[in-house]
TrEMBL record:
Species name: Curtobacterium pusillum
Keywords: Hydrolase, Membrane, Protease, Transmembrane, Transmembrane helix
Lineage, top ranks: Bacteria, Bacillati, Actinomycetota, Actinomycetes, Micrococcales
Stretches assigned to coiled coil: none
Protein name as it appears in the record: Zn-dependent membrane protease YugP
Domain DUF6458 stretches: 3-64
Length: 83
């Protein structure tokens, strides 16, 4: 959802900056469009960094003794922290 919202901001900013031809007193719509596009690009970069940079791997090791044979048993579990 974050990536989609970022792209929506970029699109809305481009529409405001380039497609609207409205003159308002004291308001520069082209500047507002550029600000929206810049905010969308920054949010897109942050969203991609979170999405692809937050993966972690966890390894858990457990050791125990088998009561029947007396052998030591070691078990390792590896889990990827994908979201």
């Amino acid at each position: 959802m974050r990536i989609g919202s970022s792209i929506a901001l970029i699109v809305i900013g481009a529409i405001v900056a380039f497609a609207l031809n409205i003159q308002l007193a004291g308001i520069d719509l082209r500047l507002i469009g550029y600000i929206l596009m810049a905010a969308g690009v920054v949010l897109l970069i942050i969203s991609l960094a979170i999405a692809f940079g937050g993966r972690r791997t966890t390894t858990t090791t457990r050791s125990g003794v088998d009561p029947a044979s007396g052998e030591e048993i070691t078990r390792q579990d590896r889990r990827d922290g994908t979201y």
